[in-house]
Backbone:
């Protein structure tokens, strides 16, 4: 199984549970699992993170090394499937227009093109005003999970070393 990470996975990790300053093991795990071909994200997510101009932006610049995949022809070929599903639902036009312009749209297309599992903190919601990644995944039969589910499935361990 390969995982495709939403921007909120990186941002919430930095801001909450896995701060770069006190939980470097999480960030090392991402780098190692990317090197093994298990973890990736997309360039649009990288762009969102770069807009933050903080230590996470620095981490992406210093350690991203191909982790943020570019949109290629197989991904672009999925745009129609994603937009057709979105416009076939009961979402308000403003919600549709917003979704089609943000990284979430590209994230779903990437996952469809490559058979990847989407990893996000978002949860399904019955709202016509905002399109949530899990709702689109359900509608397009894509697998999705939280970062915690991914870490458990992959048996990640962030263990403290011996104190010196």
Residues:
């Amino acid at each position: 199984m390969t995982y495709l990470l939403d921007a909120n996975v990186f941002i919430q990790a930095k801001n909450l549970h896995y701060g770069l300053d006190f939980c470097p093991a999480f960030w090392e795990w991402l780098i190692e699992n990317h090197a093994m071909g298990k973890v990736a994200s997309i360039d649009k997510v990288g762009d969102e993170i770069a807009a933050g101009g903080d230590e996470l932006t620095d981490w992406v610049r210093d350690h991203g090394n191909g982790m943020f995949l570019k949109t290629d022809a197989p991904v672009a070929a999925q745009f129609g499937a994603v937009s057709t599903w979105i416009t076939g639902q009961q979402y308000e036009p403003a919600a549709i227009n917003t979704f089609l312009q943000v990284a979430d749209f590209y994230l779903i297309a990437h996952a469809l093109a490559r058979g990847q599992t989407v990893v996000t903190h978002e949860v399904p919601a019955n709202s016509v005003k905002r399109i949530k990644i899990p709702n689109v995944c359900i509608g397009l039969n894509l697998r999705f999970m939280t970062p915690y589910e991914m870490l458990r499935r992959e048996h990640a361990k962030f263990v403290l070393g011996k104190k010196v």
Summary: The mean pLDDT is 96. The chain is about 50% helix and 10% strand.
